[in-house]
Amino acid sequence: MFKNYIKIAWRNLKRNKGYSAVNIGGLTIGLSAVIFMLFYINYENSYDVFHTDYDRVFSVERTYVSDIQSDIWDNTPYSLSDELQNSIPEITNATSIRTTANYLSVNDAMYHEKNGLFADNEFLKLFSLKFVEGDQHSSLENPMSIVLSESLAKKLSPDNNSIGKTVRIDKKYDCVVTGIFADYPDNSHLRVDYLLSFSSYETITKNKLDAGWGVNNASVYVQLDNNAEIDKVSEKVKGFLTNHLTLEDGIQELLSLRPIRDIYMKTSKVRGGGGNRSEITILYLFLAVVIFTALITLLNYVNSSTAQVMKRELEIGIKKVMGSTKSDLRYQFITESLVMVSISFIIAIGLVLLFLPLFNKIVGKNLSIVFSQDWPFFIYAALGSLFAGILAGLYPVFFLTSLKISSFLQGNSSIKRRTGLRKTLVVFQLVLVIPLVFTSILIIEQFKYIEQRDIGFVKEDLLVSQIEVTNVEDREVIKTIGEQLLQNPNILNYSISDSAPFGGGSHQSMDWEGNTSNGKAVIRSHRVDYDFLKTYQMTLTEGRDFSEEYATDIQSACIINQTALELFGWDNALGKKIDNGRLKVIGVVKDFNDYTAFKKIPPMILFMDEGSGSSYVTIKVAPDKRAEARVLVNTLFNNNFPESPIEFSFLDHELDSSFLNSLKGTINIFIFFSVLAILLAVLGLYSLVSFSLRTQQKMIAIRKVLGANVESIFLILLKEYMILFCIAATLGLITVYFIANKVIHVFAYHEGVKFIYLVMAGLLALFVVLFSVSSKIISAVLQNPIKSLRTE
């Protein structure tokens, strides 16, 4: 029997080619969009779940709490991992890591690799690295050991024989390759291309590893045993630092545990967070678009199926006369629905495979479909599609097969009287469209705001590089190079600092003059020189810049940013003292920040320091001489520092290629699928109006025969849809209000929800209605009334 249903369904699809093509096309587009977005959501939600026992692995976060501020950090003291494992029985493993970027070379080939970690053997036990060569349990045991990913190993040694070879680090230190691991998955909050043994840290960086409990220089991860109760362990961990730190009154340093799978999605506002980070609200927006697209696709199918089945009323009546039961007819129509959905699903999978490379390029991801691994996803997608097809076919099937035979044979189908449902569907389509239009406008405008927002400095034409300065002589060499470069007309400014405005710096707990609270505030500090503000073209809102004319500037002067001024509560900052009177404020600089959309600018302080250590050299070059200037700068520095690899790059390229491009890709995909959903809604609304007007042809014909003109009939019909639009707009705006408050506050800086956005969303939705409705109404009104009356 089922075989016969399949045959009948196939014959009907072939007989009604136009209807079949439109229905299958709409279903295919909708299913393709839903599968694409669900696959993306599934990927985004899969971060760090590839680890063995990932549900028992946690990162340790530190929360600084005072009467003034509360900030969460992902860095803690290096010694914390050992202390936690030794003190809390439920913790079976603990490890500390620290990110690093180095120049790696074998023979003459040298590469700047930015995704490195200092780690120990506990890291290899806790994280799921798949070793290809070497001993996974002891590869990081000895000093000057390095473990490479397969891709990096092949790049350094094309002969595929890396174990035991020497890799030179920063042209200074030799490390022995002790292991090779399979390329670390992209869906991890960590980026790992190589691992250096932590016992090499002090040799390579010249910094003390165990610098005390007051220095937060590592990220700590712990693994709990199977029987551990997370709440109880969290309570034990919470005040752990209290026993090791001497804190002032009103200040707390609290620890907390965060599941490793939550790090990627739920830590965008955690300070110090490196590696891969996203924001879960963006994922919720994608999920909302998935739901809206699926609903619109199903509604379109219901409308199209119902309209088509109207033409088959006589067929249904004859089949009933010939003895077909309701069950027979229902099975037949449901089978037709399943056949149509199955064909659409197969074509949709083909489209997903075809356009996946383009999708990856836009979002900056590396999604791939491996059916041997991803088959559960596609099984669920197929079952979901079939289930949705059955649901979409239930209304026309159960309604039509329950009508009386006399209705069919006399041409008096009571489907024409079911106007309430059709009006509800129109309203529902519009309620879905308005939030999609509004959210798309809101996100586009917010991205423009982020992209065009004044970040407090001019990022164009700046060459930057981090250079390790180990002594006073090296610093003098850097100054001498700067003096030589400034003789070149292509070099406009030159500055040496401990970090750049877009990151780095250190954090210090400071007091300030007039502080009436019990606690201090954590201030981000930057060591700069006399030309820092000039090179970055920063603006002083109050006071003056550092100057060699004032001998005290190099020891006791400082410049604060506007956020710090607001925190300190001063009306006039000049002459005020900070850090127990050690520093005097000589100026206030306009807030500066990178493109971090999710974090607020912290309070900052700039002061002068001639000490050694890691230094950023920033060079402002002439706009039309970028290429020549870069060659000149790289050559000059490498000639003067032959033992240290140095490579200058342009700051605007580094910033734009990292955060902005990633965010832009995600937003472009969101906008694309939103527009696609809106177009599907337009198509559905058009079909729904066509179906509705088909049932009103007799009414239109009678009005025309009685003397009504075309304009009056047009306005009568349009009025009905305008009333429905007003109802939908009211409901849609309620949804919009909820969406706006959730979306806009994800971003640290935003323009708010402007009234014009609501107006634009309403006008665009109105245009959708007029576009979908007007042409069909005009077509129906202009039809010859004799033809409609004769048909009736």
Number of strands: 22
Major sheet characteristics: 7 strands, mixed
Which value, in Å, is the CA radius of gyration?
34 Å
Task: Quote the beta fraction.
Answer: 15-25%
Principal-axis shape: elongated
SS class? alpha+beta
Q: Separation of termini?
A: 37 Å
Give the % helix. Answer: 40-55%
What count of domains describes the coordinates? 3
Q: Could you name the ranges where pLDDT drops below 50 across 5 or more consecutive residues?
A: none
Helical segment count:
24
Average pLDDT score: 82
Task: Summarize the structure in words.
This protein has 792 residues and is an alpha+beta fold. The chain has 3 domains: 345 residues, no CATH class; 213 residues, no CATH class; 160 residues, no CATH class. Helix content is 50%, strand content 18%. It contains 24 helices and 22 strands. The strands form 3 sheets. Strands 14, 15, 16, 17, 18, 19 and 20 form a 7-stranded mixed beta sheet that branches. Strands 3-4-9-6-8-7 form a 6-stranded mixed beta barrel. Strand 3 and strand 4 form a beta hairpin. The longest helix has 44 residues. The two termini are 37 Å apart. The relative contact order is 0.11. The mean pLDDT is 82.
